[in-house]
């Protein structure tokens, strides 16, 4: 019998998706001279696209609405997903962890088929009991609560404040990683049980 359930967010937690988001932003905003580091310094401090575009590029509300629609139509397309890559060491880490624990992916992706294809591409299906995808219809809490009986020894791992809030609602332990979309300082505001620079640093038996 497996020791515990561990729920992993996908983007920013197991997969490095930063290049995909940065490249698409630059493609949609030709006037942008932001470097990769410039862009992520803003995003990791919770500066939204709307704030960036209005404050730095004089976008109107109508301009932003148009940008947002094009962004949503493209961000999960195969062309842009091709820039994603697993964080170094994650595949071996998951293989070892899956021997004694039940692992799940829980992602807020809008397109389930694309998410499943990506998991298959990295040959991760063998490690996970199930991949939960919100599809824009449910939130992560609902997906887990309606499918898995959790306990206080289970874990939810993610790179956003919402992930930590979801774990707390479920009554499981929470681990925040600042390998993804938010900085350590921002994530600490949500009071996770553990915070680390990478999933590789997490010890679920501590």
UniProtKB/TrEMBL annotation:
Q: Which GO terms describe its biological process?
A: DNA repair
Q: Name one GO cellular component term.
A: cytosol
* Classification via Pfam families: HAD_2 (PF13419)
Q: What is its EC number?
A: 3.1.3.18
Q: Which InterPro entries match?
A: HAD-like_hydrolase_sf, HAD-like_sf, HAD_2, HAD_sf, PGP-like_dom2
> What does the record give as the reaction this protein catalyses?
2-phosphoglycolate + H2O = glycolate + phosphate
- Keywords of this protein's UniProt record, alphabetized? Hydrolase
Pathway recorded for this protein: Organic acid metabolism; glycolate biosynthesis; glycolate from 2-phosphoglycolate: step 1/1
The record's similarity note reads: Belongs to the HAD-like hydrolase superfamily. CbbY/CbbZ/Gph/YieH family.
Question: What is the name of the protein in this document?
Answer: phosphoglycolate phosphatase
From what organism does this protein derive? Niastella koreensis (strain DSM 17620 / KACC 11465 / NBRC 106392 / GR20-10)
